Amino acid sequence: MDLRPLGRSGLSVSPLCFGGNVFGWTADEGTSFALLDRFVEAGFNFVDTADVYSRWVPGHRGGESEAVIGRWLKARPGHRDRIVLATKVGMDMGEGRKGLAPDSIAGAVEDSLRRLQTDRIDLYQSHTDDPETPIEETLRAYERLIRDGKVRAIGASNYAAARLREALDVAARAGLPRYECLQPEYSLAERGAYEAELEPLCRQEGLGVISYFSLAAGFLTGKYREAGAAAGRAREARVAPYLNPRGFAFLEELDAVAAEHGATPAQVALAWLIARPGLTAPIASATSVGQLDELIAGARLALAPAALARLEAASRGSLRS
């Protein structure tokens, strides 16, 4: 496995990151363990989760995904050193637990470490911007965690370019740890927001980039091919905006490229991201070992230059209606 540097963090990660949002939600514990086992056995090492996963599920409180990963690590002695473990802080966990104030971070990291059953988090990410807390205060909180060995590197998710630029400037001016990684929404179906301002900034500053919704919540797998096809599904609200004439036309192009490479649409969509300059690793989830094997094959797929150009031309901006 050819590993890639994650910004200037010193961490090296596989070109595919497993998205742990499904653990304890659409993948039960036994399935989650099997998925993590297969992922590591295949030579991949990057797992991403968040403290808030999966608070949106009725009856869940948040922390379910981290707890599943923690129990897997406990049941697999030695596996902690085989993975780069990423989680996030800052989303609303209820009872006033949200944001990036130092006290909030200090409490949240202890909760995450306990659920994950580990002494360190490799990549700790601000899940969303907190305009109410001065950036320097947030970075100083992270500095303490890095000094104490509880966190190795920090990253940002869902940050606008101007705020990410400001955070990098504050870190440089105050001699504080900087965000080494950005986690934006980015895929063949949703390109405009990232490419317009965030991509140039990340490449200029040498930040790692790990994209979420890399398969556009399942749209780029090709399983939704008519209006209303996602009705009643867990990700209906995310997929529905792509179910329009432009989206369907793009799926036809994706099908053609996939057929030329003996691959599936999902594999082509992942391979395009992995080939994108400046992108470290797309994040993708699976709820069965068969689905995961498809993703693994996509991470190993090399697209012909002509295919990359066709996909580039057909997918500019956003496919949303």
Task: Describe the protein in words.
With 321 residues, this protein is α/β, with parallel strands linked by helices. It has eleven helices and ten strands. It has helices at 29-41, 64-75, 102-116, 135-147, 161-174, 192-205, 236-239, 245-261, 265-275, 289-299, 305-314, and strands spanning 4-5, 12-13, 17-19, 46-48, 84-89, 121-126, 151-157, 179-183, 208-211, 281-284. Strand 8 (179-183), helix 6 (192-205) and strand 9 (208-211) form a beta-alpha-beta unit. The termini are far apart. The relative contact order is 0.13.
Structural class: alpha/beta
pLDDT < 50 runs, ≥5 residues: none
Largest beta sheet, briefly? 8 strands, parallel, barrel
- Here the CATH topology of the domain at 4-183 equals TIM Barrel
Report the portion of residues in β strands. Answer: 5-15%
Looking at the overall shape, the CATH architecture of the domain at 4-183 is Alpha-Beta Barrel
Morphology: globular
The tally of strands reads 10
CATH homologous superfamily grouping of the domain at 4-183: NADP-dependent oxidoreductase domain
CATH class of the domain at 4-183: Alpha Beta
Count of DSSP helices?
A: 11
Give the averaged pLDDT, no decimals.
95
Q: Going across the major beta sheet, what is the strand order?
A: 3-4-5-6-7-8-9-10
Order of helices and strands: EEEHEHEHEHEHEHEHHHEHH
Helix content: 40-55%
Distance between the termini: 38 Å
Gyration radius, to the nearest Å? 19 Å
